[in-house]
Amino acid sequence: MHDAPGSAATGAPTAAPEAADPADVAFAAELAGGAGELLLQIRAELGFGDARALKSAGDLRANDFLLGRVAAERPGDAVLSEEGKGEAGRVGTERLDADRVWIIDPLDGTREYSEEGRDDWAVHVALWQRGLGLTAAAVALPAQGVTLRTDRVYPVPAERPAKPRIAVSRTRPPAEAVAAEAALGAELVPMGSAGAKVMAVVAGTVDAYVHAGGQFEWDSAAPVAVALASGWHATRIDGAPLRYNESDPYLPDLLVCRPDLAEPLLAAVNGH
């Protein structure tokens, strides 16, 4: 799996640029890419006849791979994982006292992963550091053969489109996105996982991603870090900053978009 096109970051802001360690970014990319290769292998081994079995195997085996690598190579760091359990996992408290926490989603978009031919699913790996926030991250899109990371620049296209394209859930577009569609004459683009949607914004395939109605920190940490590192807008849908490694990992809504669309989108989704 190779990196998505982009040059080394030269002045583009990151979530915490003064603390970004190249070794941490490289490790995040290696983890995300390695888990992605494993997920492709599992797809090939099990096929698509039993969607539930494929989802379960993918989630668990990718999570074991990621937790094993972090434990072996960053033994002093804590982990917040969708599939984690206990002190180092999603319901534990150890991470709240840690200075470094890896926030991971071993398989973002299990539904899409279990559907033959779909490539809109992802692996998320992000590093949170106390006092700094998100400092390193990578998002692998294994079926697309790319990994996007915080030490690469994915520039905002110069020309703002007359008809913005907004990525939304395949099954439940939020009312906020529908309001933005009406207010801005936008086009709603159904798409799979949260990571795939945010990376579609970063790649310029769409202009925004509006989500409301429920997510957790692992759904957005790595994609948000990648977006912020190249200067894209990423906040809550009320404009508040996104905060990570909180005691409650529930982070229900998200807006990622071109910076020049942030103000009109925030106004539209908040009924102004």
Q: What does the model show?
A:
The protein is of the alpha/beta class. The chain has two domains: 8-149, Fructose-1,6-Bisphosphatase, Chain A, domain 1, CATH 3.30.540; 165-269, 3-Layer(aba) Sandwich (D-Maltodextrin-Binding Protein, domain 2). The protein contains seven helices and eleven strands. It has a six-stranded mixed sheet. The protein has a five-stranded mixed sheet with strand order 8-7-9-11-10, sandwiched between helices. A hairpin with a 3-residue loop joins strand 4 and strand 5. Helix 1 packs antiparallel against helix 2 (51-73), helix 4 crosses helix 7 and helix 5 runs parallel beside helix 6 (217-229).
Q: What characteristics describe this protein?
A:
7 helices, D-Maltodextrin-Binding Protein, domain 2, six-stranded mixed beta sheet, five-stranded mixed beta sheet, single chain, Fructose-1,6-Bisphosphatase, Chain A, domain 1, 272 residues
By CATH, the architecture of the largest domain is named 2-Layer Sandwich
Number of strands: 11
Residue share in β-strands:
15-25%
State the CATH class of the largest domain. Alpha Beta
Could you give me the name of the CATH homologous superfamily of the largest domain? Fructose-1,6-Bisphosphatase, subunit A, domain 1
CATH topology of the largest domain: Fructose-1,6-Bisphosphatase, Chain A, domain 1
How many helices? The count is 7
Largest sheet: 6 strands, mixed
Order of helices and strands: EHHEEHEEEEHEHEHEEH
Number of domains: 2
> Mean pLDDT, as a whole number?
89
Shape: globular
Model regions low in confidence, pLDDT < 50 over at least 5 residues: 5-14, 86-92
Q: How are the strands of the largest sheet arranged? A: 1-6-5-4-3-2
Radius of gyration in whole Å, from Cα?
A: 17 Å
Please state the structural category: alpha/beta
Helix content: 25-40%
Ends apart, CA distance between termini: 44 Å
Keywords: Magnesium, Metal-binding
Cofactor: Mg(2+)
Pfam families: Inositol_P
GO molecular function, one term: metal ion binding
